[in-house]
């Protein structure tokens, strides 16, 4: 009789695969598109667009921490390589100690990061073809590149992963003792050089526990992103 797969081991393998994919996509040697001149401009434009779309969240003291967390840690335009190095270094320990809901969040976050970067590389490549001399990135040029890249199913997967990370963190924070565990691990994490990863977990916990309704927040974020995607597809 065939042995039934171990769900936790399958989850651990998923994390390992996603982390390897994430690291490969960010490696400028293995992926030369990381050196595209349009890539940093694209990220800045996307970050600014999201900040405009999140303006009403940022203006409300109840939703501001969650909005800032998503803008800085989920959608951020900065380099996540140190955080990923932290995760790679402590992955065996994390897999042994973290409850499954947190491992699910980690797997979804890594997949989201890899998919987002892969799509950004394609966008940067499309912009390079459309405007090889450079210039200013505006909504019209962005929409042209978006349509050229296409891949609507992957775009929808990207939004679904944003939802999964938000809802997953919210569910994980209801686990008994998790917030206390995060506070107690602050000093050991800093001593071990894992401050980036610890900061991510703490910021996420603080941001989402302050929300009056995680579901309403995530539903609105996802609806906004789907409306934007539809607009760019149409032009």
Short description:
The chain is mainly alpha-helical and 235 residues long.
Describe the protein in words.
With 235 residues, the protein is mainly α. The protein has one domain (7-234). It contains twelve helices and no strands. It is globular and about 55 Å long. The protein starts with 6 loop residues before the first helix and ends with a helix. The model has no long low-confidence stretch (mean pLDDT 82).
**Rg, alpha carbons:** 19 Å
- What level of helicity do the residues show? over 70%
How many helices does DSSP assign? 12
Q: What is the molecular shape?
A: globular
Number of domains: 1
Extended strand count = 0
- Distance from first to last alpha carbon: 55 Å
Strand content: under 5%
Contiguous low-pLDDT stretches (5 residues minimum) are: none
Order of helices and strands: HHHHHHHHHHHH
Q: Which sheet architecture does the biggest sheet show?
A: none
């Amino acid at each position: 009789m065939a042995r039934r797969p171990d769900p936790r081991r399958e989850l651990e393998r998923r994390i390992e695969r996603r982390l390897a994919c994430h690291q490969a996509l960010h490696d400028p040697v293995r992926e030369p598109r990381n050196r595209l001149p349009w890539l940093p401009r694209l990220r800045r434009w996307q970050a600014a667009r999201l900040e405009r779309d999140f303006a009403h969240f940022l203006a409300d003291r109840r939703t501001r921490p969650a909005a800032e967390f998503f803008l800085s840690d989920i959608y951020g335009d900065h380099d996540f390589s140190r955080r990923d190095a932290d995760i790679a270094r402590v992955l065996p320990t994390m897999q042994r100690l973290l409850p499954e809901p947190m491992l699910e969040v980690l797997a979804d976050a890594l997949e989201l990061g890899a998919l987002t970067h892969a799509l950004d590389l394609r966008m940067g490549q499309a912009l390079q073809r459309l405007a090889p001399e450079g210039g200013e990135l505006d909504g019209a040029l962005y929409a042209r590149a978006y349509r050229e890249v296409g891949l609507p199913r992957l775009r929808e997967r990207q939004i679904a992963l944003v939802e999964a990370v938000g809802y997953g963190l919210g569910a994980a924070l209801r686990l008994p003792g998790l917030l206390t565990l995060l506070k107690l691990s602050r000093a050991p994490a800093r001593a071990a050089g894992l401050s980036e990863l610890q900061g991510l977990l703490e910021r996420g916990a603080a941001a989402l526990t302050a929300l009056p309704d995680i579901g309403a927040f995530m539903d609105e974020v996802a609806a906004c992103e789907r409306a934007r995607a539809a607009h760019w597809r149409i032009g």
